[in-house]
Amino acid sequence: DVKVTQSSRYLVKRTGEKVFLECVQDMDHENMFWYRQDPGLGLRLIYFSYDVKMKEKGDIPEGYSVSREKKERFSLILESASTNQTSMYLCASSFYPGPSYEQYFGPGTRLTVT
Amino acid sequence: GESVGLHLPTLSVQEGDNSIINCAYSNSASDYFIWYKQESGKGPQFIIDIRSNMDKRQGQRVTVLLNKTVKHLSLQIAATQPGDSAVYFCAEKGNNAGNMLTFGGGTRLMVKP
Question: Smallest Cα–Cα separation from A36: which of B18, B93, B43?
Fold first, then answer.
């Protein structure tokens, strides 16, 4: 079974703090993704990576950065956390190329910025 | 002040009935579609997928129907069970989008015993 793990299930941080969210996958997937999930807005892509040290901006990259130093690990960084970054953060990974485009998700990190 | 998020559409069905969850997609060039189920406190899990060269695909108790003419996707769940209660998302992949998926807002399915 593919396993995607995220470093924390719940996190509370203060405004202005630097926040690291870690994601690890054990299936040697090339692609990794970070989404944020807000009620009624579905999943919005923040960044994705298709290879080590490669990254591409998604739909809402502002206020975030990422790091992929190893194939299995993809980190999301909030340089200076703000209250509007309070959200559920989901990491996912997938093969490239197919056979399908299924993305495997971690359990999520619920981040609260106070 | 506290921000108020958008409310999810909700479908309420009786246990044992069939459920139909609908999704309108935006990109007529999308060539792949996928349904996910997300239970409370968990990440989304794959249910079923379909490519644009098909109009129907069946799995265990689930069927996905694709109508490209009106850009509509539906997920049918037969004999709905309490364990089917969750939020369901559809996602599409454009034919030039690499491996990126675009997700819909989700529908909450509530199963009444």
Answer: B43
| DSSP-derived pairing of the beta strands B30-38 and B45-51 | antiparallel
List, as ranges, residues 27-66 from A with C-beta within 8 Å of B.
Answer: 31, 33, 35, 38-45, 48, 50, 58
Q: For B62-109, how does the pLDDT look when each residue is reduced to its tens digit (9 = 90+)?
A: 999 999 999 999 999 999 999 999 999 999 988 766 778 999 889 999
Q: Which residue of A has its CA nearest to B3?
A: A84
* pLDDT above 70 (res A25): yes
In angstroms, the CA B73 to CA B97 distance is 19
B8 and chain A: CB distance < 8 Å anywhere? Answer: yes
Per residue in A32-91, pLDDT (tens digit) is 999 999 987 889 999 999 999 999 999 999 999 999 999 999 999 999 999 999 999 999
* Cα A55 to Cα A31: distance, rounded to the nearest angstrom: 10
Please, which residues have CB within 8 angstroms of residue B108's CB and are 6 or more apart in sequence? B8, B9, B10, B11, B86, B87, B88
CA–CA distance, A74 with A77 (Å, rounded to integer)? 10
